[in-house]
Amino acid sequence: MEIVRRCLDADPDDGRAWELCGLIHYSGGHFSHSVYALESASALVPLRPAGRVCLGHAYAKVNRVGLACDLLTDLIDDDSISEPLLLQVAMGFDSIDRPDLAIRTCRRVIHRDGQFAQAHYDLGFYAGRVGLPRQQIELSIRKAVELSPNVSQYRVGLAGLLLEQQKTDEASDLVADLSDEELASLDCSCCLQRLATLYRLAADERRVVVCQRRLTRLAVQGSETNRC
Length: 228
What we know:
Elements: H1 2-10, H2 15-27, H3 31-42, H4 49-61, H5 65-75, H6 83-95, H7 99-112, H8 117-129, H9 134-147, H10 152-164, H11 168-175, H12 180-184, H13 189-201, H14 205-221
Helix pairs in contact: 1-2, 2-3, 2-4, 3-4, 4-5, 4-6, 5-6, 6-7, 7-8, 8-9, 9-10, 10-11, 10-13, 11-13, 13-14
């Protein structure tokens, strides 16, 4: 930020410096400053894809929901936005309580790259948010597991879904070999609680303890989420 400020002191019309300033402010949680900097940049230069996505998120953070929705909607069919950034667009929609548009965005990503596992997983998540049939949700998450079987997040998500359907054997098989490091990397309290239940049913007390320790640490840090 100090370097960016020096650039702006030397040239207040440096649009790219303003854009970078906005990205830095957003990453630091200074959302009003981020909006100001990115709007200043957009008056000087066309924002790059990351800057446009960030501005949409920043609008959401400062409760300018209409502007956030309009900007993010314009990005769905923009071919200059990469697939990973489009999934950030979907997250922005979810943050303003528009999981329907998040679903549309994920489907756009899958249309562009059907092998992108994260898009299938996120589609299943947002499908659950709008109350689509459980079979449809499961299909999306299974596709993510099929494409990237080594990603523990996908297997944990599917295991939780199966546990809700009383398919405990299949759910347990999915997560039976998760390492302590993989369990300790999870930050979703719901997932960890479901895993603890599964491991308890399987008499895997060591992993039960790992899950409980992780839950305790997240609670102390105040950093647990419920994105599952």
